[in-house]
Amino acid sequence: MNTQRETSTRTRPYTILATAVLAASATFGAGLAPAAATGLGSAGEAPGLGSPSDFTTPDKVADIEFPTTISHRGGANVYPEESMEGFTASAKDGFLPEMDIQFLEDGTPVLIHDDTADRTLNGVTGPIRDLSREEWDAATIKHPAGGEEAATVTLDELLDEMGGDVVLVPEIKPGATPEEVDRVLDEFDERGLKDSLVVQSFDFEAAKTIADRGYSSLYLMGSTMPKESPAEIKDAGIEWVGPSKKLPTNKMRELDKAGFHVAPYTLATAKDGHRLPGFIDGYFTDDAWTGLTFSRQ
Questions:
Q1: Running DSSP on this structure, what letter comes out for residue 192?
Q2: Is 51 left (phi over 0), alpha (psi -120 to 50) or beta?
Q3: Helices then strands (H, E): number in the chain?
Q4: Which of 114, 116, 139, 288 is the most buried (most CB within 10 A)?
Q5: In what order do the strands lie in the sheet with 140-141?
Q6: pTM, whole model, 2 decimals?
Q7: Summary mean pLDDT of the chain
Q8: Tens-digit pLDDT profile for residues 259-285
């Protein structure tokens, strides 16, 4: 992360056109709950961006109601993956937007899951760490249903748009150096976001650092228990764990009994979340809308 922040001069096209709405509607059809219809632009409105007054996601971690739905990569099966449209649509419908932090060649933190651009971006290829800021700004994010592409997003842009207004769930991806972890947390500190972030990592030392710095820390793990015992994880100050959905239920229950908020990843839709054991406090899903049955006032 640069100490001198770059300000992009491009116009950020944070809208998805009506054609994308029609494509998404054709894909998901009657399975969309009322909230999904709203998130995809009801009454002819373009989906995506909204003001903080439109958001129904809580703005404080302490106000999260369980079980909670975490919109994985901003709803990657509904919106362009890790786009502002997906993040804001998720926040409008009460889901916790989740995103991944990688770094450009100049150290700028950007939001993308993969180490390379090829799967999700058009206009650039190769490792994210080899891209310049200009190349990043010129790229676009593919739409999962072939609709309108979206602008790429830097961490600063996300925080300018939503920081402090909703609980965000950023992951500092494996491969980040301890210095990069600290620089990201410094950015959060400067913006006063300790109360409104659940910060994740697959790296235990990074998750411990996150907790030591006063943030709600989520330690990600795979389909087997990590080498650290639940007691060791708890002693590190970590409050959340994110196991693979393939971790056996008895192991998830063990983590629950140890006092963690347990949030498995990654479910296809919200409908799959209804099948989880009652002790689960949340789940990650690529489509938080399909199968959800609630109405907003």
A1: T
A2: beta
A3: 10, 12
A4: 288
A5: 121-122, 140-141, 150-151
A6: 0.84
A7: 86
A8: 999 999 999 999 999 899 999 999 999
Separation of alpha carbons 232 and 40, rounded Å? 43
Strand 140-141 and strand 121-122: the pairing is antiparallel
In which band, very low, low, confident or very high, does the pLDDT at 53 lie, cut at 50, 70 and 90? confident
Amino acid residing at 87: F
For the CA atoms of 232, 73, 38, 31, the dihedral, rounded to the nearest 10 degrees, stands at: -90
Instruction: Please tell me the number of Cα atoms within 13 Å of 290 on its side-chain side.
Output: 18
Higher pLDDT, 77 or 29: 77
Sequence-ordered list of residues with C-beta below 8 angstroms from that of 51, at least 6 positions apart, any chain: none
Neighbouring CB atoms inside 10 A of 256's CB total 18
**How far is the C-alpha of 47 from the C-alpha of 145, rounded, in Å?**
15
Contact 59, 275 (CB under 8 A): no
Going by the DSSP 8-state scheme, the letter that residue 282 receives in this structure is: E
At 88, list the tokens: 């804001």
Residues in the chain, how many?
A: 297
| Of the candidates 195, 285, 213, 290, the residue with the CA atom closest to the CA atom of residue 245 | 285
Which residues does 134 contact at the CB level (< 8 Å), separation at least 6? Answer: none
Residues 6+ apart with CB under 8 A from 28: 36, 78, 287, 289, 290
Determine the Cα–Cα distance for residues 31 and 29; give it in Å rounded to an integer: 5
Question: In 3-state terms, what secondary structure has residue 91?
Answer: helix
In terms of C-beta density within 10 A (0-12 exposed, 13-18 middle, 19 or more buried), how is residue 116 classed?
middle
pLDDT, one tens digit per residue, over 121-172 is: 999 999 999 999 999 999 999 999 999 999 999 999 999 999 999 999 999 9
What pLDDT, on the 0 to 100 scale, is given for residue 50? 65
Report the alpha-carbon distance of residue 220 to residue 239 in Å, rounded: 11
Could you give the CA distance from residue 48 to residue 84 in angstroms, rounded to a whole number? 7
